[in-house]
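== Fold encoding ==
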Amino acid sequence: MQFAGVLPEDAPDPRLQREEMLKNMPIPIVQFADQRCLEVTDIGVSSGADVHGFNTMTASVSATLWRNPDDKSDPVNLADLDEQTRRSIDEVPPWPRPAWLIEGVARMRYPVLWEAVQTTWHRVESDYTTLPYLLVQHANYILINQFREQLGLGLHDWDSPALTSERVVRQDVEVAVDGLVLTGAEIDTDPFVYAIGAKLPSGGTLTAVIAREHLPYLDLAFTFRR
């Protein structure tokens, strides 16, 4: 039996469909370099196309943060959740759920670096494919979706003077990718997030945006996904 709006127990894992879509990415995907405090949990994908096929594609890597990777049961690993969110996670519905959904709900107890690392490819370069532009777009995307209350944004507000801009992008920053040291850029002026990125030798652009509260636990180095 399937209730309205309820996924059946055998519903396919949407990550499998995204994996198939990612095979269309013309360049290697970048993620955080291996580190014990991080566990990659998902890679989202967005794209655009015209009569000639794909003309843009972005892969967005999300990861769970373990503040104490030696003991994942340590309460220090738990995210700071409000009571309503905690209750919704603990509530078990009276119908069976797909295993991947149960796993995803359980991960909500822990801090997530949501879409923190993006690899963006464009078929044609333009003013909208520069590193400063893409770095600002990624930073504002994270700010609008994860720091709405802090920015004073209402439900239907999608802009704020508190959002960052290209004028604060600092150039000539070193970015470590797969053993290479690339010349990139950063945004280190926002009170809520830090952003760093670089143009990739394989084509495309790496951008990474991380909440400042998570920075002490991370090594800001990257690698190509194998």
